[in-house]
Amino acid sequence: MAADLGELLVPFMPTVRVPRTGDRVFKSECAFSFDSPESEGGLYVCMNTFLGFGREHVERHYRKTGQSVYMHLKRHVKEKATGAAAGAIPRRRNGKVFLDLELNRDFNGEDYEYEDEAKLVIFPDHFEIPLPNIEELPALVTIACDAVLNAPSAYKKQELDSWEEEIQVSKHARSLRQLDNGVRIPPRGWKCQKCEMRENLWLNLTDGAVLCGKWFFDGSGGNGHALEHYKETKYPLAVKMDTITPDGADVYSFEEEEAVLDPHISDHLSHFGIDMLQMQIKTENGHHTDNNSRPRVSEWEVIQESGMKLKAVFGSGYTGIKNLGNSCYLGTVIQVLFSIPDFQRMYVGNLQRIFDYSPLDPSLDFATQMAKLGHGLLSGQHSKPPMKSELIEQVMKEENKVLNWHQQKGVSPRMLKALVSRGHPEFSSSRQQDAQEFLMHVINLVERNSSGTENPSDVFRFLVEERVQCCQTRRVRYSQRVDYCIQLPAPIEAATNREELLAYETKRRDAEENMRAPPEPVRARIPFTACLQAFTEPDNVPDFWSSALQAKSAGVKTSRFASFPEYLILQIKKFTFGVDWVPKKLDLAIDVPDFLDLSRLRAAGLQASEEELPDLLPPIVLAEDTRDNSMGSIDSPEIDEAAVMQLAEMGFPLEACRKAVYYTGNMGPEMAFNWIIAHMEEPDFAEPLTLPSVMDPGPSTSDSPMGATPLGNSPPEESIAILTSMGFPRAHSIQALKATNYNLERALDWIFTHPEEEESDALSDMADTEPNDNAFSNANSHSDPTLSPDRDASGPRVKDGPGRYELFAFISHMGASTMSGRYVCHIKKEGRWVIYNDHKVCLSERPPKDLGYIYFYHRLSIS
User: Fold this and answer.
1) Which residue intervals define the domain UBP-type in the entry (predicted)?
2) What is the DSSP track for 93-112?
3) How far is CA 466 from CA 335, 561, 705, 798, 856, in A?
């Protein structure tokens, strides 16, 4: 028999590979579906590419690649005998459990046992060879099979990589000595014992001293008294006061010089009278920055509709998405996108075509993974109601628990997350992220991958008309830019309960000063009309250069809709920054309407009574030859000396600090600090700043960088020079400036959220011709009746129409910061509001529309 097996495998030996270091072995999920070894048909792993395929997709891979040898993996799961879970019968672990897989179910692992089966399958005849079969198989095949069976799954490897900086347990945690000095810490009203600072406070776990943290380069943060205390006492561990929650706290080891874990943190805190269960609720690896627990608890309960008997729903469009750990931002965004017909049609309607034309590695193809996840959500295959017998069994097990929350398994977005986050420093991590930033990231990926095909993100794209007026001459300039999301400010001063808020603030300060419990928190209630009014009000243009005066002047800018999108995205600007630069959420509620009419915000363009600003450039700053530095007519460059001194106090050379502040456009010490870090190794780092020369302005088709600029013109060299001096490529800098209407600060944000594309030719073309961050050239090669009337076919494609909308979805955030907490979404389907809370999908009883973060509207049809 051994000879027969050897002869059978001889023709295929060149295609069998042994996994090398770096090879990803996909043995837990199909590349085209959510089939796994636990599925009825099991999973087939190609012994050449190590990609996994379900039974209905393996034939496609065989026909496309000619690879004939696959390893078939099957895991048989069965419930233990009665009493096993309680310890009466030990969990059975036999030699047939050999796959390095997580149990792909929402089961309690102690209630179930499983055994694994593996065999080689040779296509096209489906000849099967059971494994292990060491004696009968060629040595190379045996080694390859053993390597595949013992290799970690691709997902486990990725998860380890994303937690490569995982916090370790401190060596002091188990043996920490705590002084019996009678110190008791109150639950609120903390302040530094040396300087009375009330933010960024740390509790030393040895003697209970409450002291402020380190000083930041911008002057905020603290006076470093906690570190000084360690140097004096050598007491090693401290906990950040405003991070203490029932789930844990942020602990720092001064001796180990890093954040650490303390498994005994509850006991260590109780030594000083702190009960963790009474502190702020936190989930999913959060970092909280405020001490007010009750608003957060209320918010969590309201948004998740806790305490209500929500009815679970099943079927097409009602499939949940599993949380991979801090991935609910992804799940909520994807749920909303696939509730839009254009995304359904693009990815699910074209499923077979996408799969048939997918590349050799479909795990790296954006369209394939979007189609896979979209089909998983819309097919209903993964959202089936439980059988009657299962319900009875579940009721017997969970007696007093809410049954409906526990039925649906949902689908796992691992493969899509790995793809869309590849190369992104934040989304590739296992930390919580901002759902709005991720939404814009996905839209950008859709744009890049829709060249020459239907582009579903067209439904979000619209044009904004910006009107800039010189306050002195009253002349104006109009320009247009592309956008996908409207960010509405939340003016606290417009709150309808302002007196109540002022009274609460007075009581809170009094409670802190007198070390009493804080008063019942008050949530600001802001009318939606006030948010819309704040959005439409004129903004001052910093450093506005008037081409009419040929000098700097005061300028104001107003924005209106040059076109209305088919689907409107509204983001409420709920977040600000704390002293530790962590985004911190404002506690507010906004009465967002179900129906919205923005027709009055339609742009009108240049009016007959208005006079345009001349098309003239501001003075262009060029590097001057050092031999001409003696010119007396040259003024010294404007430099923020306060920022220079803050940097110099950190130990950097004074001239380097001056250059950093100058080359970052006086945008603050933090931006200049980044410039210093990027240029420290340059030979002229500490040399004096070369004075610029000023050229006379001349006529040009370009506009002032301070004012709005028509689409298609080139950015000013001064702005480009500032960005390139910070280390960004010239083409990417031009693209960023054009995408943000030549606003330098917004261009920097754009660069950080839009990594440079690999397709250098396409990027170069975009930098020369396109004013925005998305590739429209191929999609706009033909005329489109939906184009805005003042745009030609070469411009961005928009689906203009009436500005009347109806709310159909919103994403809500729970927690104190975008870096922590959770997201859920509510979507209106078939006239009913449905809550999507990870893998749990239920009919909503009270959709919390006033606490949303991102709102989605669809255009009302003309009746």
Assistant:
1) 168-276
2) --TT--------SSS-TTTE
3) 33, 9, 13, 17, 23
What average pLDDT does the chain have? 79
Give CA–CA dist 462/486, Å, rounded: 10
DSSP secondary structure of 335-357: HHHTTSHHHIIIIITTHHHHHHT
Tell which wins on pLDDT, 242 or 725: 242
Q: Which residue has the higher pLDDT, 132 or 25?
A: 25
Q: What angle, 0 to 180 degrees and rounded to 10, lies between the N-to-C axes of helices 328-337 and 366-378?
A: 80
Task: Render 253-306 in DSSP notation, one character per residue.
Answer: ETTTTEEEE-TTHHHHHHTTT--GGGS----SS-------HHHHHHHHHHHTTT
List, edge to edge, every strand of the sheet that includes 237-240. Answer: 168-169, 258-261, 251-253, 237-240, 201-204, 210-212
- Give the model confidence (pLDDT) of 63-113 as tens digits: 999 999 999 999 988 766 554 444 443 343 444 555 555 544 444 445 567
Q: Binding site annotation covers 212?
A: yes
DSSP helix/strand/coil, 592: coil
Other Cβ atoms closer than 10 A to 267: 12
Q: Is the dihedral of CA 723, 726, 728, 730 positive or negative?
A: positive
End-to-end CA distance of the chain: 76
H/E element, 512: helix 498-513
Between CA 272 and CA 183 the distance in angstroms is 6
Q: CA angle 777-779-782, nearest 5°?
A: 95
The answer to whether 225 is a known ligand-binding residue is yes
* Residue in 810, 844, 807 with CA at minimum distance from that of residue 825: 810
* Tally of CB atoms within 10 A around 204: 23
